[in-house]
Amino acid sequence: MSYSNLDLINQVDSVPYTPQPVDAYYEFRSHDSKAVLGYILPEVAKKLNYPDTFTVTGPTANQRGAVTINSSLDSAEKRSEAIAKVLEDLKENKTFQVLQGWRNELYTVYNPTHVPYFLIERAGSGLFGIVTYGVHLVGYQPATETSPLKIWVPRRSYTKATYPGMLDNTIAGGIGYPCGVHETAIKEAYEEAGLDEEFMEKNLRPAGVVTYFHQVNNHFFDSEASSRSTTTKDEATYQPEVEFIYDVIMAGDVKPRPVDGEVAEFYLMDVETVKQELAKGSFKYNCALVMIDFFIRHGILTYENEPDFVNIAQRCHRVLEFPMK
């Protein structure tokens, strides 16, 4: 099968824009019920029987169900501690397979915007459908008179729990607490590709953000790709995500190298080869979007050569109606 650029965008930005039935998901609500923090699928909500932490109300004919943080949890510290205990219990009881990929890394949930509301174990974030944040860096050799633009493309380790063996962006990683965006980019560059801080500070170029709203079970649940995720059909999740994008100029003899075991190997690909791999579905879903965004920003993908250009450009920057970082 050959994937168009719009096919790839549809895979990552897969939550419908049109209103969904009231029983499609539960709202994950703040302790004062003023904010919706995320979306929880019914199969997950039904297993959150922790009355000291959550109040779960089912949907009615004209109102969505809700998982509401209890009003007694009126500080970030209380909420973080209570939700951590819930996730630890769910992990111990093997309620959700995704929690077996426990990372001992915390993500920050915000409410209101910019204000930390609680911390949550990374492996459990998808169960609550909260916004998560990451950095994606595209390392490339600029075009010269004798050579076309080339991009450093890694292959994910074949032993990774999620999307093993798929192609990725040069450097990528989630923004864990208490790290900042720039700090994470520098850290991940060394850990994943052996690029030191001095080099990165000279060659790192902020290039905006991409945003999308992904539903894990919307694609790839087949025999071909059953190993791509630790999440199964009965515990599918919503994943609204914000990725901070950087370009890294890697001219001359600068080469990334695997360091922490996250990457099997790096390839230096010209644009046509990257396009071919995108069309084959070789890239992890969100990394395909980042690569398409790179093509747009560098004038490789244009209105003249892509019939779905406007739709694609819009879909790389979805408005997420949740409190944000």
Automatic annotation (TrEMBL):
Entries under CDD domains matching the protein: NUDIX_Tnr3_like (cd03676)
InterPro entries: DUF4743, NUDIX_hydrolase-like_dom_sf, NUDIX_hydrolase_dom
SUPFAM superfamilies xref list: Nudix
Limits of the Nudix hydrolase domain: 133-291
GO MF, one example: 8-oxo-dGDP phosphatase activity
Gene3D superfamilies listed in its UniProt record: Nucleoside Triphosphate Pyrophosphohydrolase
Record PROSITE patterns: NUDIX
PANTHER family: THIAMIN PYROPHOSPHOKINASE (PTHR13622), THIAMIN PYROPHOSPHOKINASE 1 (PTHR13622:SF8)
Protein name as annotated: Nudix hydrolase domain-containing protein
Species this chain originates from: Sugiyamaella lignohabitans
Lineage, opening ranks: Eukaryota, Fungi, Dikarya, Ascomycota, Saccharomycotina
